[in-house]
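Marked as duplicate of an earlier ticket. Keeping the data here for the record.
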Amino acid sequence: MSMATAGSVASPRGLSSLWNRQLDNYPDTGPRLMYLGITVLSTVMLYWELYVGGSVSTLFLQKLHMSFSFLVYTTAFGALIGAFGSLFAGLTDRLGRTNIVVIGLFFTAVFVAFIIPSATSKWPFTIETWVVAAVEGMCLVATPALIRDFSPQVGRATAMGFWTSGPVLGSLVVFEVATKTIGSHPSPAFWTHEFRICGIAGLVVAVLAMFLLKELSPGLRDQLMVTMRDRALIEARAKGINIDEALRNPFKQLVRPDIIISAVGISIFLVIYYTAVLAGLIYFTTVFGFSVKDGDALGNWNWGFNVIAVIGIGFVSDRFKVRKPFMVIGGVGAAVMTVFYLEQASHGPTTGYYHLAVLVAALSFCLGVAYVPWMASFTELVEHHNPALTATGLAIWGWIIRVIVFVSYLILPSVINTVTPLVTYGGTVSAYTVGSPRYHIPGQYESQFAFAAAHADVVATATKYSSELTFASTHPTVIATAQKIPPSVIAAATSYSSELSFAATHPTVVATAERLKPVLTAIAAHQSVFTQLFIDPTSTTAQAQAEAAVGPAVFAQVVANKAAILTLAPYQTQLTALESVPPSVFAQVTPYAADLAIISPFSTQLTALATVPSSAIAQVTPYSAQLAALSAVPASVIAYVTAHGAAVAKAASKTSNQWKTWYWICFGCMIAFLGTVPLMRGRWSPKAARADEEAHEALVQAEMAKLGITA
């Protein structure tokens, strides 16, 4: 008999078509490519949603008051949650792939567009991203399983190249959208903008997948297809395949050394990839001094060349029909480029943009060259053990890679502990002190802080005597006047400052007291008598007693100057004190009375200034202009730089070496990956691979002849 190979499709009607998506027959090329395209588009969208935070990490770290360590640790736990989501996705071998993908797309889109951007602190943000990670872990096992279902082994690398472009294109879209929508100096609150754009796009893709995405029935997908010519044979076998037997104890069937070791190998190989996803922007901004916009643009170079590699190498690998040589070529190339890449950290902001972009592009290209053939080979390895358990095998790989990411993210903060001060405070400290050397933008107070750093001893002296020296700089006339007066005069004036001040401010009172001095002396000698007289001036008895006490002549003077004497009464204490001043003091002070009048309001400040050592004055005097400029810096700025400047400087001095250490760890992981390549399926030689394909074709023809199937 003959069997038609046309791709007829079961067509449920009504709402059931949105749930029952299985195809009874293997689809023709056109529909098959559409399903593959929707699967890749869904993968791109899921990774865009998962990685969107990487384009604004420096913003939400500030806005949500989140340390770098907190971000890394919580992202690590998100990866662990995603790992168990991946294990759950192994059920798609029984339940199907597409419904998980469609539901997951709607779920993640709503979270990214509306729920995560509403977070106002770090814990709600973190928990909500964990939810997205769990759903992503399920969906991103189902999507490569769909790719495998719709692609024979001879075209598997090409198909997996397109699937692998999903995470890479997702990253590329993240940074491409960021460079187009983020300004040069975005506010920390701007981080929500990128999430909302991503979430809205996710809803559109979810609707497309809901109406267009299909999958093979279990009987079709649970078989091994090497070439498209196997299609008729597979459809014939599907009529009698024992699905339950093939799916019994799935994890027990696939937990094998070659599968586990291979999955661990590629997972550690990709530690550098996941470092770029999480902290690429942070690395570019903190080590090389790039702006957020330029850091995101460097991400475009990274992911753009990775896309070229993962798509191109798929065609090449299928053309030569081998996987392992390309894994080795890509792995060795990535290891070498990692060394060149990490060495740039030593040069910091002097590293040119395009120089770094070329290294990033070359490294990323090599990663793609190794990864796509591995992905194709891994699905072939799973098929070798049981083609009905593809999703289970991918679930094991998904679990392992997320556990490796979890462990690596736990280790990362212990190697790199300089990010938090640089991200949280470094931008503001730099804006005040050094500006941006890369963009030739000076710091707002760069010259002042540079002077302070170069002349710490001068600043320390000026700070110690700040009030005295400030007074001296703001009252030059007072200082000049004080310098004209002999120190002995100032000492005398200071000793009798209150008395002399009274004399200077009450000259009429002092003159009157001097003129009436004999009379006042007499009154003071008979105080009680004259007190009674002044109380009752009309009393003849009081008058007689007073006249008898001082004599008629003095009494006549008292009567004649009564009014003047009474005006002196309120100043009796001051006048008495003035009497204690030696005449020699008046002789010293009088020639300088005008000058003393100028400096007398500042006697306290002048006294304090006199205690400042002459060496201190000599030390700071040449830098009066610089110190004046430094004193004009706002106190809030001084306080901020004082509080955080040392931590930022310390972090800046250590960060490049810490990043280099981390990338050396990544280098070691790449070397370890190369040791796992021999465990993978596939030939090293294209000639041997072609011989295998010819042998398989002969077997297929023989099998089809037994079944009575004609091509």
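See parent ticket for discussion. Residues 3 and 250 are 32 Å apart (CA to CA).
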